[in-house]
Structures are given as C-alpha cells and as structure tokens.
C-alpha cells in the first residue's frame, strides 16, 4: 500500500524544511512593511513571524529585511527571494490543480494537535495501514484547537482529534469523547527540583518554555495561574517554541521547565532524562475528542480510521453511520 504522508513524515523525522508558509510570510511582510499587520493577516504570532524570517535568512545566508526604520522593508536580497517565492507558489498551485484531475483515491484531511501527533498518531496510523485494504490520500495538519474548529466549520478539515479544556465551544460539530490526558511540569534532573509536588512560588524563578497562545497546554496553564492570582508573565522568563521537539530538547538540557502532556514526554520520563513534578492546587486533566463537521458522513476509510483510534484507546466500538 502506498500512502502519501508528506506532512506527518517531515514532522516525526524532526527535519526542518523551508515550507511554503515561510515564503508566504516573507511575501506578506514585504507587502505590508509591518510584522504586526502580517501577524494579523496570517493568524500567526509576531515572534513566529520573526522566527520564520530568521530561518529564511539562515537558509539563504542573506539579510532579507531592513529593520532600521519605523517599519520593515525587503532588502535587495529579500526582493529577489520574495519575487521568486511568488513564482514558486504559483507553480505549486498549478501543480496541485493539475494533479487533482488525475487523482482518484479517496482524500482525507486530518487535523490534530502536535501533542496528539507526537504521542499517539504514529501507532494509530500503523494499525490503520495494516488493517486498511484501500489506499487513500491522507493529508495531516497540526494546529491549536481553535484553528482546527475553524477548519472543521469551513470544511477544510473533515476529521480531527484534539485535546481541550472545559468550556470549549464545539456547537454544531459531531463529537465523540476519547480518554483525556494529564499535564505535568517537567524539568531536567540538573535543576535539582527534588519534590514531586511543590508550591507555585517554587517554580516562578525558573525559565518557562511554553507554547504559543491558543495551544491547549498553554490555555490550561493560564487558567491555573489565574486561579492563583498569577499570569504567564509571573515567571522570571518566558521562551516560546513552535516546535515541541525543540522545546523538549531545551528542557532536557536543563535550560528551564515546561508544562506538557505527560504522554508527549513519556519516553524522556522513563529514561530519567526528564523528571515530572506537580504544583499544588493545579488542575492537570484535559479532555480529548474526535470531532467532525456537522454534516460529515463516514466513509469506509474514516470508519476504519475511527476504529483504529478506538482500538488504540480501548474505547467503545464505532457505531456511527
């Protein structure tokens, strides 16, 4: 069986490629001359915009933006890259359009959170591929719950699994509850946090490695901090990583602490590379749901995928239509 798992393969191998999103970012920043405006248009945080531009600059070995003025401008090298990027993206659209005329396999667009993608999806997909007799085209997207819900409502995504806090609005969507997961603070043994349960004041002097706004783990952390009269800014220092692999590497090196899904760092906890600890009074449980659009009708492929998910979590057999 041949399946195209382009996005998921790149994600799990931990290889960092110059994706078209980074080129789109440079084009938008160059067009508007303002990172704040580009952030609003692309629905990406300003630090993420800056990181994408820095990655492109490292990739090409050239400064692409002139940041000396009140706004930003494309440098000579930046204009060359942006112009070629426009051509490349147009070719990409033509290629995709051309391929759609010859592709006959069933397509399934699956969205999930990065934590689910790292901790659970590989084994689920192995089971699915062994059981499935068909060869569907599968496209995977990793995003925060809010954006996944928007994609489901606009039918960009047809199938999703994500973790979420209580009160998330899933009105109008088909939902099936799955076993949730547990959040924990983790740190390298190098930091010598000896107690398994400590007070929040005992960790505020550490650097917090966190996820971007909208991520479920950050949302739950913010709720807990607010309940204690604190905020993210109460930590001595906050460093945001878009990539969970890089975040875990930083924590493993003893650079700070993080609030992560226990499933995501299970391997590091088992080997002793990381140590978990809990903060007194913190709520650690997150819900997890399988969510589809309101008018979604399961095909044989999505039934098989759902059954693989249920088998993995040892949930009830699938009885949908």
TrEMBL record:
SUPFAM superfamilies: Periplasmic binding protein-like II (SSF53850), Winged helix' DNA-binding domain (SSF46785). Residues 18-75 form the HTH lysR-type domain. CDD domains: PBP2_LTTR_substrate. Keywords: DNA-binding, Transcription, Transcription regulation. It comes from the Bacteria. One of its GO terms (molecular function) is transcription cis-regulatory region binding. Pfam families: HTH_1, LysR_substrate. NCBIfam families: decaheme_TF. Belongs to the LysR transcriptional regulatory family. This is Transcriptional regulator, LysR family. It comes from Desulfuromusa kysingii.
